[in-house]
Amino acid sequence: MLALFRITGLALLLGSAACQSQPANTADVVAAPAITPAAAPASAAAVGLLTAPPDTTLARRIQRPQLNDVYVVAYQPAGGTGERYFFYRVSRTTPTTVDLLPARQESSDPAANVGAAGFFTDKALTYTRAEALELLQEQPGDVQHTRLVQIRRDQ
Hints:
Layout: H1 2-19, E1 30-31, H2 56-63, E2 70-75, E3 84-93, E4 97-107, E5 125-128, H3 129-133, E6 147-152
Antiparallel strand pairs: 1-4, 2-3, 2-6, 3-4, 4-5
């Protein structure tokens, strides 16, 4: 259930950011507010969501997170048809949890440069490993179709 609230919270937050008016010459990367989860995610199976199996490479990377992995999350802003992307950086891992630092900015490019100082907040969001796996699948009722699409990892 907590996953549903986190994803719904993320969707609402990203939706409100997308609805804010912006100057005509807005750059590709715009500011987005920090995300604060309301509760823990629920499993997709528990709520009867039928979806395709998640990408096994992504699932393996989520199960074995490394410091500074960058999670790329796609979503569709309310009223829009194009995808936008939001980013999280792994700041700490334990055998049962992973801490993610949300980006301060969203982008229309999943390959956007996230290396600038201050790109990520310093307010970690803690996910259990099971909750992190649920990022791979769109949650029921998520009108922004939020899901993890890529994990960037330094080789």
